[in-house]
Amino acid sequence: MKKPHQIAFFNHKGGVSKTTSAFNIGWKLSEMGKRVLLVDCDPQCNLTGLVLEYGHEEEYPFEGPRNQPPKNIRDGLAPAFEARPIPIVPVEVQEVVLRPGLFVMPGHVGLSENENSLSIAHELSSSLTAFQNIPGSLRYLFDLTAAKNNIDYVIVDMSPSLGSLNQNILCTSDSFIVPMAPDFFSAMALRSLARVLPRWRAWSLKARELDILKEADYAWPSSDPKYLGSIVQNYRRRSRGGQEARPTQAYQKWFDELKRANSAHLIPALREIGYLLPDNAYEAASASIDDFLLEVPDFNSLIAVSQIVSKPVFALTQADIGSSGVVFEAQDKNIQDFNGIYNVGAEKIISMTNG
């Protein structure tokens, strides 16, 4: 079975554009010839609603009878979480109409119902065989579905929480990216992650050594997720003295604070638990962990159009926007600027993941 590279987009602080980042990076990687699967692991299903074109009718279109192949993540995991006497099978993923090679595993609000079962399984799977197939089932489902669709990258959009689902997903991923906003609470979140991730790592190492999980139908994977960097976004910038546009002074204050929290707290903690790549991998990708992987300014009015047409801002066309003349010229300049930003980001990711 082909082994895809799984990247988790994670921050337990909400409102930092995790879904937008996952979608945009996934789209850009597919533009570069990679086959990408976006997995919606947030029970709010924002990624599913953003990317897939459906009328949001009363009936959810990505759900079906139990005797048919699953069409969403919750139903895909049901054999493990509901102890059914049937094996996990690949989810019927949806290809993004406007971006061939980009696929979505739809989310489901009912995924949150699995949180308690997974939490219990994490605690008791060492002693109760009834729970042994649950911890390894998520990565197994993602890999199985990815193999069926010849996927290179699995990008997981996670919820803003420190629950067992996120613990499981991050610990079984190959790498992770931390989206942030330039504000006080994002700096606080970095310091929090520096305390939480070592505990998650210790739990994962313990799970790896349990015979009951090694012998499970969906064995616990031996993953050591590596930090690829952070994305800071949703800020305003200004050009001073004809120089390249930079964050305004108000935002620069928080850029500096994020870097301090990163270098003083998060990076030392990640280094201690082995969640960093070798230094030369970051250097080869021009992705210093002392800086941000990506700096994405405010999309302004373009984000509304992007959400309507289910395309990233950098993929918008004049027909999408509906403007002309000097107005479109200014908008197109911004579109090309964002395209360059995400090109660089995707190239860094490919380099660091040996893609």
Describe the structure.
The protein has 355 residues and is of the alpha/beta class. The protein has one domain (5-352): P-loop containing nucleotide triphosphate hydrolases (Rossmann fold, 3-Layer(aba) Sandwich). The protein has 13 helices and ten strands. The strands form two sheets. Strands 3-4-2-5-1-6-7-10 form an eight-stranded mixed β-sheet, sandwiched between helices. Strands 8-9 form a two-stranded antiparallel ribbon. The longest helix has 28 residues, at 325-352. It is globular and about 65 Å long. It starts with a strand and ends with a helix. The model has no long low-confidence stretch (mean pLDDT 91).
Question: What are the main properties of this structure?
Answer:
Rossmann fold; globular; P-loop_NTPase; AAA domain-containing protein; 12% strand; 10 strands; two-stranded antiparallel ribbon; eight-stranded mixed beta sheet; 355 residues; alpha/beta
Topology:
Blueprint: E1 5-9, H1 18-31, E2 36-40, H2 46-51, H3 73-81, E3 94-95, E4 102-105, H4 114-124, H5 137-148, E5 153-157, H6 164-171, E6 175-180, H7 184-208, H8 211-214, E7 226-233, E8 237-238, E9 246-247, H9 249-272, H10 279-284, E10 294-296, H11 302-309, H12 318-321, H13 325-352
Parallel strand pairs: 1-5, 1-6, 2-4, 2-5, 6-7, 7-10
Antiparallel strand pairs: 3-4, 8-9
Protein name: AAA domain-containing protein
Pfam families: AAA_31 (PF13614)
Domain AAA: 6-196
